[in-house]
Amino acid sequence: MLGKRGAGDDGQQAKKKRRLAGPVEPLNALVHLNKLRPGAQFKLVSQVGPVHSPLFVMEVEVNQQLFQGSGNSKKLAKLRAAELALKSFLQFPDASEAHQLLGRGFLPATADFTSDADVSSSGACRSLFSDFSGGGGTGAGDLNNAGGGDALQQRILSSKPGDKNPVMVLNEIHRGVKYDLLGEVGEKHFKLFNMKVTVGSREFTGSGRSKKVAKYNAALTALKVLHGISQFRSRVNEEKALGGQEPQVVADHMAQLVLTKFGELTNNLSSPHARRKVLAGIVMTTGHEGDSGQVICLATGTKCINGEYLSASGQAVNDCHAEVLCRRLLVKFLYQQLKMFLPNLSPVVSILEPQPDGRGFRLKDGVKFHLYISTSPCGDCRIFSPHDAKTDEGRTPNQISDKHPNRRARGLLRTKIESGEGTIPVRVEGTIQTWDGVLQGERLLTMSCSDKLTRWNVLGLQGALLHQYLPPVYLSSIVVGSWYHSEHMMRGVYGRVAPSLDARLGQSGQSEFRLNRPFLSGVSSPEGRQAGKTPNFSVNWCVGYEGLEVINPTTGKTEKELPSQLTKQAMFRDFLSLYGKIPALDASQGVLDAPK
Ligand SMILES: [Zn+2]
């Protein structure tokens, strides 16, 4: 950082700079900021999450830049914001230089950076720097007069404001940052690239229609988070992913929609059924102008059925993990939409339309589904230690001294285990799970959510019955509210099957199935761990329902011991209500054709 900029100086000076660039003592960040900017005002931006585990976002304005910090208390959020504001001082010996570098020109381009009389913060900075260098140094003045600093100023002065893009600016602030391609998403006509930029020990991702745009967005995110810089004269507006907005903004928006809906359904989280570990929801976008997304369904839950309650007639819900219930709710929603085409019903507005050849139906152009999960799905997506990356500065993922106990077992199929936490790998050899075995006391094994998501990314979310009427329905994006790691998430939901499936599905061009690569994203303010005991209930809601349905995950029935609306039997009834009354995809099944 600063040390590198001064390369070529004499050793003593370089040494001093390295010390200057050292980490800000977190506990003193507020005190330091107050010294530099007495009375800097902090503002509460938002408060999300349940009462017992809220997440606060605080904001402070310094040098006309906004710095946001988040935390489980207002104090912590303030501290984070102050740290970011302070870092912006540390990156630049003089704040005016920072603004010039960004082409935002709050000062005239001819301003004398080295002048102490400048309206900028150089004087204040000096006291900050002398604090960090033990009180003996002369601080910012030295840095400004150093050779490296002059050269930088020359470059800044010779460039017109707005000429620089985030990639250039990030590179000027942090020399030699590394970009890695994480992967590609989507089909030929709509490809999305994911890039990662590593700045010190932190990683930021960005997506875009080209590698260049993805790189641009990754750098933009890094600048925003590290330095509170977000304004650039963007020349890639038209290329921004997902409805013309930055992917991170869209991801945060999806999360907010689901959290808000959950708040509405739980009386502002005051209902006893607001207690949860994991919340998931599906947002639908139609692509119409002004449509910012609608929550179709949501569910909470982290448990599975007790083996003895398995139902032979499909009257129990076996898997009450939130994201798994969401798939069933989406199917329920799609059945609702299909029922609008039953004969003798007055014409309605549906998100579906008949196929042009009269066989079955399809989603209208532009209709997309986005899954939000408050934490990464159980199974392969969670096989990593979230703190590893922080101690492995500048290394590629392969070089990381990975200490996760399951690191050798990545990419494997895994199962949830009855009355146990977490998942275990599927045994290649060994006994096959049988019903009578489970009834005699073997622990019931249920497919992990990572594995189910992988399956949905190949077969779609609609299931075999609904597939009589609809081609595969895929997720356009998956947004994860905490414990998100782009690399592990990508492997967990499609990466591990890509090598074998791409060859088979991609080349033939015959199959209606494909390997779906949804856009993957975390949120900018990850939610904290939900405190308290895991609730022994799971709730679900779908558009058109009045309130929440509450399931006891141990029995797979509702609280009143009735079958849930999401049982296999309920789904089959939905199917039967359409059978033979609307046109099916496969015309050879004449019986499924609608009567003329
Ligand atoms: Zn799960």
Automatic annotation (TrEMBL):
One of its GO terms (cellular component) is nucleolus. It comes from the Eukaryota. It holds the Pfam family A_deamin. InterPro entries: A_deamin, dsRBD_dom. Residues 297-596 form the A to I editase domain. Gene3D superfamilies: 3.30.160.20. Keywords: RNA-binding. GO terms for biological process: adenosine to inosine editing; RNA processing. Residues 22-91, 179-228 form the DRBM domain. GO terms for molecular function: double-stranded RNA adenosine deaminase activity; double-stranded RNA binding; tRNA-specific adenosine deaminase activity. Residues 1-21 are annotated as: Disordered. PANTHER family: AT07585P-RELATED, EUKARYOTE SPECIFIC DSRNA BINDING PROTEIN. This is A to I editase domain-containing protein.
